[in-house]
Amino acid sequence: MQLTSLASTAGAAVTPTFAGAARAAVAGPDGVAGLWTGWRPAVVRASTYGALRLGLYTSFRDEGGRWMGPVDGDRDDGGPSQGDGKAPAPLSVRVGAGIAAGALAAAVTSPLDLAKVRLQRGGGGGGGAGAGRGGAFAVVARVARAEGVLALWRGVSAGAARAAGLTAAQCATYDGLKAWIGGLSLPSLPAAPFGPDSGVARWGAVAGAGAIATVITAPFDVAKQRMFVHAAGGGSVGGAAGGGKTPSLAGTLVGLIREGGVVALTRGAGASWLRLGPQTALTFAANEWIRKSAGLPAL
User: Fold this and answer.
1) What CATH number did the domain enclosing 57 receive?
2) Quick check: is 11 in a domain?
3) Which helix (H) or strand (E) covers residue 26, if one does?
4) CA-based torsion, 97, 98, 104, 108: positive or negative
5) Element (DSSP H or E) covering residue 162
6) In this structure, are residues 113 and 152 in contact, taking their beta carbons and an 8 Å threshold?
7) How many domains does the chain have?
């Protein structure tokens, strides 16, 4: 959905629907399998990027919390303890840890993200028949040969900004909501708080984190896709012809607004929410289970 206007003719932007985008993918040469185009680099990237951002987040958060110590007025509500018996880190530390962890993880894995988008777009780099085919590393090699090694980090600013917002929104919100919900008690059961490690606290935190993350990352998602397909026969990026100098993140965002108004920045947000909701739930459920199995404190 985010890339549809790149395939439009005469510069006319198209506003797709989720169902329309799915039908277009199925109508392609791969049929239903077209819905899973680019899944290999997506899996490779997720296994590295996801592990990096969550691992770095907890390290940065804990180190930042020890360095800053308790800060009156900077906590959410003064509050409840986490599963490890420690009070939550200050909100500013959690947000800062999320921004740093997300941006660093995205920068390291940006070539794999670019390979995924190129495969989904059908332009794996280098042009010619079958340019959009092959595995992640085949696409990376073609892009490096055809466009130069630095082209593998095209769009890294949008990817890093998106990952910074995603990790800060998901992790900081999950942390805070889980502690807050864990400190609540029902009026009819005043002596029975849910507890920060209860299912109610975890799933409530997941729901809030997924929704907030979708809203924050939507504009960066659209801009990232545009920048990744630049110079790969991908039409216009932010209103400029493909090829030549890679546009900046700010230039791409401005171009999108000129193309379709502010609403263009939210193109595909519904589909993103349908993906981010379950992804957030599975990510944090698996993370909490692994940490508990390894004898580590809860996130």
Assistant:
1) 1.50.40.10
2) no
3) helix 18-26
4) positive
5) helix 156-167
6) no
7) 1
